[in-house]
């Protein structure tokens, strides 16, 4: 009987290690955020994306440019995607402009390197580097 319990203990440890490895495979490393006043990382249904928010200046013209960097190879056809969440009616009424930033690769989370809104640079930082 003692031998059976020892085998169970080894089995439990093996299962624990396997679970840890599986969690690490799905782990997404979120880089430091050099733009905390306007950019933040969010997670929805296990997928990390960015969110950018600006005060509505009432100009009626809104141009957003977001540059991001990741320390892995990404092909040229893989770009971030911006999506305005604020409805046109809410924008017209002066609501803040809120954008989701979708990343091209789920397991390589980029960091913002430059965020420009209506020709004003709100944030600038060096690109991500390999460790």
From TrEMBL:
Signal peptide: 1-27
InterPro entries in UniProt: GD_N
Record keywords: Signal
Keyword Signal listed: yes
Protein name: Serine protease gd N-terminal domain-containing protein
Residue span, Serine protease gd N-terminal domain: 33-125
């Amino acid at each position: 009987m003692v031998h059976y319990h020892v085998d169970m203990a080894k089995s439990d440890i093996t299962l624990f290690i396997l679970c840890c490895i599986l969690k690490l495979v799905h782990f997404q490393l979120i880089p430091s955020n050099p733009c905390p006043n306007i950019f933040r990382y969010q997670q929805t249904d296990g997928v990390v994306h960015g969110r950018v928010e600006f005060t509505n200046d009432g100009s009626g013209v809104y141009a957003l440019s977001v540059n991001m960097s990741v320390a892995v190879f990404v092909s040229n056809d893989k770009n971030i995607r911006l999506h305005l969440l604020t409805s046109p009616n809410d924008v017209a009424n002066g609501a803040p402009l809120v954008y989701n930033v979708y990343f091209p690769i789920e397991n390589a989370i980029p960091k913002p390197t430059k965020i420009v809104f209506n020709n004003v640079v709100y944030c600038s930082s060096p690109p991500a580097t390999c460790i």
